[in-house]
Amino acid sequence: MKILVVTDAWHPQVNGVVRTLTQMAAEAPALGAELQFMVPGEFFTVPMPSYPEIRLALVSPGMVERRLDQIAPDAIHIATEGPLGHAMRRHCLRRGLAFTTSFHTRFPDYLAERVPFGAWPGELAWAWLRRFHAPASAVMAATPTLARELAERGFRNVKLWPRGVDATLFRPRAERVLDLPRPIFLTVGRLAVEKNLEAFLALELPGSKVVVGDGPARVALEREFPDAVFLGTKEGEALAEIYAAADAFVFPSRTDTFGLVILEALASGVPVAAFPAPAPRDVMGDVPVGVLDEDLRTACLGALGCSREACRDFALRMSWTESARLFLQHVREGNTPQRRRRARRLRAVRA
Questions:
Q1: Does residue 172 fall inside a structural domain?
Q2: Backbone angles phi, psi at 251, to 5 degrees
Q3: In this structure, is residue 178 part of a structural domain?
Q4: Are residues 127 and 196 in the same domain?
Q5: In this structure, is residue 270 part of a structural domain?
Q6: DSSP three-state, residue 213
Q7: Please, where are the H alpha helices in the chain?
Q8: d(CA 327, CA 204)
Q9: Which domain holds residue 273?
Q10: Could you state, in chain order, the average pLDDT of each consecutive group of 10 residues for the chain (351 residues)?
Q11: How far apart are CA 218 and CA 147, in angstroms?
Q12: Domain CATH number, residue 216
């Protein structure tokens, strides 16, 4: 089965969407499928306002149609709600083609961080997202809490699609590469307002605070918190070595839909401290591999007492193979003859 994945998020971006889709492509052949991608780099792009490292594709309907005809996929998955995602959605509706989507980013919450005009911008954003995903044969969500919320907000055909971790790369290591006062509290991710990093960096904690990642908030954060160690973007072995050298991993975000970094830390044998937000609550549950508390300092200090072996054992249950199996199952079910007939009926209604 050949699946075309349309995504506005792709390399060289470093984020959970890119990592997830890359892993799906790696796992798919062993499961009887092939993933091909339509990504911004194939088209003329412009930088996204306030996020210049993210490029937005300027694409015409003809470009989408030619690319689709060239690949001739058996199924289409639209991963993001950006320009490419919208262009493919319009084309599928125009031609009566079935497609699936996935919900990766809580844009309404991000908007609320930036637009101080009350709740209405967020509600408009939810209405826009609901409309975007409405024609999809399946809308994939990473956690049970997110899936329930989407269903309660009027999204249809919501399916659970959990994530995994590369436990071979992210593992405990005897040699620790960070020569800093201990305990070392680590956070990894995009340095942007929605990640709530100030809640971590402002804490009075013993030892050292280490930040891995880059983004529009980095300069301001380095200026405001000079005692923290900012290492910039790290990948592969370099990133895995830093995880394994930490004593606790801090996840201050309240808006992430999953948080792959949580699993990467746990696979490295590092306990997690976080707010009791939906993502860490769903990923960790009641298993004692970290501490969730509205007092993040209490969570950080409490996490130091968790078993590193228990963290590793817990993460070993989360495989990318199982994640890919569920992804392919949802795509296949979304491309049945009944789903294709529904897509053609939608085309007729629009006509």
A1: no
A2: -120, 90
A3: no
A4: no
A5: yes
A6: coil
A7: 16-27, 61-71, 83-95, 107-114, 120-133, 144-152, 198-201, 218-224, 236-245, 260-267, 278-284, 296-303, 308-315, 320-333, 337-350
A8: 42
A9: 184-315
A10: 96 91 98 97 85 82 90 96 95 94 82 56 86 97 94 96 97 94 97 94 98 95 98 96 98 94 98 96 94 98 98 96 98 84 67 47
A11: 32
A12: 3.40.50.2000
Q: Residue 208 and residue 180: Cα distance in Å, rounded?
A: 7
Query: How is residue 175 written in tokens?
Result: 């040699």
Neighbour order of strands in the sheet with 75-78: 34-38, 2-6, 75-78, 100-102, 139-141, 158-160
Please tell me the predicted confidence (pLDDT) of residue 303: 98
List of residues 6+ apart from 336 with CB closer than 8 A: none
Which among 243, 254, 170, 246 is positioned nearest to 209, based on CA atoms? 246
Q: Per the structure block, which two tokens stand in for 96? A: 């009566």
118 burial via Cβ count (<10 Å: 0-12, 13-18, 19+)? exposed
Supply 80's token pair: 């993001």
Contact 269, 245 (CB under 8 A): no
306, 145 contact by CB (below 8 A) = no
Length of the chain: 351
In a domain, 177, yes or no: no
Q: Per the structure, how many domains does the chain have?
A: 2
Judgement on whether residues 70 and 109 belong to the same structural domain of the protein = yes
